[in-house]
Predict the structure.
Amino acid sequence: MRLGTLQAGNGPNSPYSGKATIQLVGVVNDPSLVIDPYIDASNNVLAVTGQLNIYAPQPATVWTKLTAFANTGDTTIQVISTAGWAAGDELVIGPSGRIP
């Protein structure tokens, strides 16, 4: 079996500076691939059986904490640090599990 490589960038000293999108496409009735019986992966799976090498510039702040509660519908948030962030960057805000 020949294993492949998915690579973006050419190493830590030559990172990929563009934007890459991996789109997984499937139809609801397509067969599912069962990797783990406890995970419902359906038919949209990215399984790396060779190598996955992603080299990209890393901002100074890769995660931070909110300094004030964010309510549904808020258009701004307050965080501890935004060093290295730029206009147009995408953010992911995860739940804290706490209710004020």
